[in-house]
């Protein structure tokens, strides 16, 4: 079967031929429909993140997949069911660990997990993949074409859950939210904040010039676009307002720090970016004082678990059609897979299509 | 009546004569027993923090008080009841605001509160004080001599509640805790972590040489003393272990940043210090990445509400007698009040005694 793999640091993925996998007991065989491309894929391709499986020289990419159960292999799944796989797996071929046992693989520390398509285990960019049935989340057939958005949405489901939990010890009624970053995850999150969580006022920070499809999407969602070149994050409270919730999806480390400045009293910032080491000067005294005197919190969050995928399916049904139409700027067949990895100002979210329903 | 007041920046408090206050409707008159001294008092005395009441030139100090209801003035309190006052009050003479209405004055932002003995309203270091009955928490008579510890304990009750709430979205079973700072609040918190919350392993960071009464208390509690001059915070994971919970009570801004390094995956740091502005270099990229990939959180927390005072009363009954005996190194009558403000290596926690039961 065909698969899209990368040799770390090679700079671009290649089409490879691999044997079709055979499901082990407890696993189902899934025929892949579509697999999304995101910033993590680009980091893996560039060699900044990720790890090939032990003893291999390439990693099959892809962690945002949707497929159809081809062979249920005795599991409770029905053949023909449309499914989305979760990403983390136990690093041991046999057995598992406490994090997986209690359904919280997203909380496993280094060494206690592998990530399909990212760290130590092949991903889903292949015509077929196998997975333990418990890591396959069924979705309605009518969502099949957008099923590759379930995984990125699940990332924000978790971020919301953890960030909002940090505000659960008091009466918190957030009205305003700021998304740092207008990439596909930032836009998906903005749409969730506007249309599902129904924040009164939302803002999205980017550094692009108009006309731009992401700025159009921001404004069509009813949010305010903030150009970081004109209004740096610490100036947002004066130029607009201090916000109750900040979602950082840039991987720009200064933004993690500046989130404290952008927050209103009692606000929380969810941090999701994964920057490289970078030393810079901060007014640590002022930030520390500000966090304390105004009860502010910062919550780092990574990955997501099955429950977040299930919430994400619900969320996906609530996003407006125009939005997902605008968000997905390209779906490419396997023969033109390279187009799915191209970047540019007119590219927002892309996917590779391996088969149709 | 006698009161202890400070002219901001004068450098030391003075004994002043003031009229005995008359309770307004809804207020009780309280005869003061003891009032504790803490770091905030020293900051107010030094002129780094706090604000005198509008139109006055001095602030009566004291926010850690215990007293006896002298005149219930028609409120539901019984005369003779031993009470501890909460600290924040509405800034408006008439009426209140949403934060006070819902019992969360600790979450009120700047301008929405005054703090007795700290910001904009006289404190409790006087022979009598008045307070709305709703801000007086009854405590058992046998706790009267230690009642001035209820307020500082309540600060940590809130910090625990908020920090632990941030970990409530997953199965978190913390075993190890690190208290940054071996002042009286640090030691009280360490005792709570050891004897009430029953953490398996606790550590307390300071920068003192043995023999030292705070190091003795740390070790008698069963905790490990860490000298920050030998083991800086970022080296604690290698020298001891990465911990599930950090409680920062130093006001040293680098510690707020270094808390991220000291935390185990999925851990949380509660920040309580109130430093001055201070610019320094940090590896913001590494810290940001670390917070995200290991699901770490930082939660700033200030002040406390009535519920935290009520929990603190329970907590106080659970602290061992030897500990509170060792903690309170001096209780001084009003004529020798100056001794209560002296600092030194043999001073841990002091109080001024205005009257006995």
TrEMBL record, chains A, B:
Keyword Metal-binding assigned: yes
CDD domains referenced in this protein's UniProt entry, alphabetically: glucose_DH
E.C. code: 1.1.1.47
Glucose dehydrogenase C-terminal domain: residues covered: 145-354
Entries under Pfam families matching the protein: ADH_N, Glu_dehyd_C
InterPro entries in alphabetical order: ADH-like_N, Glc_1-DH_arc, Glu_dehyd_C, GroES-like_sf, NAD(P)-bd_dom_sf
SUPFAM superfamilies, per database record: GroES-like, NAD(P)-binding Rossmann-fold domains
Annotated binding of substrate, by residue: 40, 115, 151, 303
Keywords recorded for this protein, A-Z: Carbohydrate metabolism, Metal-binding, NAD, NADP, Nucleotide-binding, Oxidoreductase, Zinc
Highest taxon above the source species: Archaea
Region (Disordered): 1-26
Residues that coordinate or bind NADP(+): 182-185, 207-208, 272-274, 301-303
Cofactor: Zn(2+)
Gene3D superfamilies: Medium-chain alcohol dehydrogenases, catalytic domain (3.90.180.10), NAD(P)-binding Rossmann-like Domain (3.40.50.720)
GO BP, sorted A to Z: non-phosphorylated glucose catabolic process
The reaction(s) this protein catalyses: D-glucose + NAD(+) = D-glucono-1,5-lactone + NADH + H(+); D-glucose + NADP(+) = D-glucono-1,5-lactone + NADPH + H(+)
Enzyme class: oxidoreductase
Every Alcohol dehydrogenase-like N-terminal domain range: 25-141
Family per similarity comment: Belongs to the zinc-containing alcohol dehydrogenase family. Glucose 1-dehydrogenase subfamily.
HAMAP family per record: Glucose_DH
Chain's role: Catalyzes the NAD(P)(+)-dependent oxidation of D-glucose to D-gluconate via gluconolactone. Can utilize both NAD(+) and NADP(+) as electron acceptor. Is involved in the degradation of glucose through a modified Entner-Doudoroff pathway.
Official protein name in the record: Glucose 1-dehydrogenase
Organism encoding this protein: Natronobacterium texcoconense
Gene that encodes the chain: gdh
């Amino acid at each position: 079967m065909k698969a899209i793999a990368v040799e770390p640091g090679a700079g671009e993925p290649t089409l490879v031929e691999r044997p079709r996998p055979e499901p082990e007991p407890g696993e189902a065989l899934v025929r892949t429909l579509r697999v999304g491309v995101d910033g993590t894929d680009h980091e893996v391709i560039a060699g900044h993140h990720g790890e090939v499986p032990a003893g291999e020289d390439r990693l099959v990419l892809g962690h945002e997949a949707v497929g159809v159960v081809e062979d249920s292999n005795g599991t409770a799944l029905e053949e023909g069911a449309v499914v989305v796989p979760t990403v983390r797996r136990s690093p041991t071929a046999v057995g598992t660990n406490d994090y997986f046992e209690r359904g919280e693989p997203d909380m496993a520390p280094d060494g206690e997990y592998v990530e399909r398509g990212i760290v130590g285990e092949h991903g889903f960019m292949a015509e077929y993949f196998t997975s333990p049935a418990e890591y396959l989340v069924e979705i309605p057939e009518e969502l099949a074409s957008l099923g590759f958005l379930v995984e990125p949405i699940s990332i924000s489901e978790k971020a919301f859950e953890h960030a909002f939990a940090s505000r659960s010890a008091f009466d918190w009624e957030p009205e305003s939210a700021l998304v740092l970053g207008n990439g596909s995850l930032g836009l998906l999150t903005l749409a969730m904040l506007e249309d599902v969580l129904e924040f009164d006022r939302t803002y999205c920070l980017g550094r692009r010039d108009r006309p731009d499809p992401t700025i159009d999407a921001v404004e069509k969602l009813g949010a305010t676009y903030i150009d970081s070149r004109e209004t740096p994050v610490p100036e947002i409270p004066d130029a607009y307002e201090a916000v109750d919730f900040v979602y950082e999806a840039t991987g720009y480390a200064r933004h993690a720090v500046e989130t404290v400045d952008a927050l209103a009293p009692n606000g929380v910032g969810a941090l999701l970016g994964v920057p490289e080491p970078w030393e810079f000067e901060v007014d640590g005294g002022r930030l520390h004082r500000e966090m304390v005197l105004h009860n502010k919190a910062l919550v780092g969050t990574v990955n997501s678990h099955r429950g977040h995928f299930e919430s994400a399916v619900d969320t996906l049904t609530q996003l407006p059609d125009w939005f997902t139409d605008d968000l997905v700027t390209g779906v490419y067949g396997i023969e033109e897979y390279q187009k799915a990895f191209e970047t540019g100002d007119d590219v927002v979210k892309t996917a590779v299509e391996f088969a149709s329903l």
